[in-house]
Specification:
homodimer, alpha/beta, 36% helix
Chain lengths: 333, 333
């Protein structure tokens, strides 16, 4: 961290992206950056779709901040590259030449671009480029599975915390009770579909998925990931409760629109657990909502890191062609 | 709910505050409203300390919305009153004539004022008034203990979710491990002091309290609620980690300023638990922070409702004169 002093890399204004590594670091030759959806949408709107202006903005941000950290959205993205140099004390276990993707945000990854982003037209969030990035001792990155397309692997890595935490929560419930019912809000999205598959793999029964429209209902039914699909607006707590008609031991929130906190709480049994993966979650709406409803539910902030999360997600995809097809359709659009 | 249709009372624009009750409701004769600190501060700033203007604003809000729900802060407060009529199906167990305080926010409590707030000068968040309020079947309220001053009881009810959830989290850890260390950020505030007392009562050892200045250090040491007091800025993760020097099984965040998420995560052991009670908590800072730090910690949204929370908090105060003194000094300032 160059400035300000005392903060961690994510909160920093500027990072040191020089080429030399410390003994516990790894340098990666970057081949591709993936801006996160919120960041690219903001850039696209600000520059009214002008590709050259978007490119200049991103180039300028990386040069100034030493990382790709959108000032408006506060978000970054991830990168793909090849391990170039590994410090002797690095705990990450990589070897030079391995192809990897980062699992932590670009907002905390030192980055320098060498080709001026000249091969990118600014019209897509995927940037083919050349440069280098530095991984710290605690930076997470995953080896890209050689049997899966890169774009699919990236889509998997992007949300791999969700299935891992879902599995853990369901497994803990099943230590204490014989059955565990699971409701997934936003079940046809990437993290939602993964959560359904993980809940089933962990032994949940039934698994019910909520989707907002007919197209997603069809996609989810075809994928055969849940015992029942319910069509409802998760932002309307009363309508949602009426549509799902029972309360669940575990509710997983994967909907990417704000305002689903009360519906999730109301659909969860007393003593149950709500896991919020959606970045649109409002902390105070959840805390005050549960209190206002006298709901004795455990509410978890969906931590994107669980040890072994990337391997578990890849294993789910390898084992289930339906899940794979659904994820591929989400990654490609 | 009068409008909009389909939302729960807290999210409603307007509630029906008429006098008649449904069979599962309770009507309360209101004697006092306590605006929450954030709401009163906002009103005070907006009207530049003009008491009459503040009063007009509050009167207008209650008349228009059927509840005291500050439009800017989104917050409310609580009320004290006497039970006037109890519907035959009310599950709350109150009898007419009992003096109670609400434990849920005024933002979801139908309220009508009869005296035009004429006895309030607008210069304090405590409003002596006359009117009525309606409690729903699931509205929480507590009988005021006759052996404690009303202001102290209100202070206790205000934060009673914190000690109850702290006790539960520590007790669950101690089922699986022999010792449980607890760190409390903002330990000299109301919810912080309560969390320290509850952690100790549940068997945590050691309990370490973090405070931001000398005055709070002295107050906390005098109260003898913790094994060690540490002076540090909880917003500075690196400084905090250096000051506390170890990682804890459980970290409780009671600091009422933003930006403490990363410090709390970094001070917590792998496999540990962070409980966020502060309404200043940022959901995304916590979720992305833990991921960025590769921290395998369970992060809980501090649910203000745990069954029996008010009784447990009152019992802690009755049993510990030091805790009582510290709370009294916080309530009186």
């Amino acid at each position: 961290v160059i400035s300000p002093v005392g903060v961690l890399p994510q909160a920093a204004e500027r990072l040191d992206a020089s080429e030399e590594i410390w003994p516990d670091e790894v340098r990666v030759r970057v081949e591709r950056l993936n801006l996160d959806a919120a960041s690219y949408r903001q850039l696209h709107e600000q520059h009214r779709g002008d590709g050259a202006a978007i490119r200049d903005d991103v180039r300028e941000t990386i040069a100034t901040r030493g990382k790709m950290h959108n000032r408006v959205t506060g978000s970054g993205g991830m990168l793909v590259g090849t391990v170039e140099e590994v410090g002797r004390d690095s705990p990450l276990g990589f070897l030079p030449g391995e192809r990897i993707a980062t699992l932590v945000s670009l907002t905390m990854t030192p980055l320098r671009i060498d080709d001026g982003l000249d091969h990118w037209d600014g019209h897509s969030p995927q940037i083919s480029t050349d440069g280098h990035a530095i991984l710290f001792a605690r930076s997470l990155a995953g080896r890209l599975p050689s049997d899966l397309p890169t774009s699919l692997s990236l889509g998997i890595f992007d949300v791999c915390g969700a299935p891992a935490l879902t599995r853990r929560v369901v497994a803990e419930k099943l230590k204490r009770q014989r059955y565990c019912s699971v409701l997934v809000l936003g079940a046809a999205g990437k993290s939602g579909a993964f959560s359904c598959a993980a809940a089933r793999a962990a032994g949940a029964d039934p698994v019910v998925g909520v989707v907002p429209n007919e197209a997603e209902r069809e996609a989810l039914e075809q994928a055969d990931l849940v015992d029942k699909v319910v069509l409802a607006d998760a932002r309307d707590p009363v309508a949602l409760a009426e549509a799902v008609r029972e309360s669940f031991d575990v509710t997983i929130v994967c909907v990417d629109v704000p305002g689903c906190e009360h519906g999730a709480i109301l659909s969860t049994a007393q003593g149950g657990t709500v896991v919020f993966f959606s970045m649109s979650t409002s902390f105070s709406a959840a805390a005050l909502g549960a209190e206002g409803l006298a709901a004795d539910v455990t509410m978890l902030i969906g931590n994107g890191y669980v040890p072994g999360h990337a391997d578990f997600a890849v294993s789910l995809v390898r084992a289930d062609d339906n899940l794979r097809s659904l994820l591929e359709s989400r990654v490609m659009r």
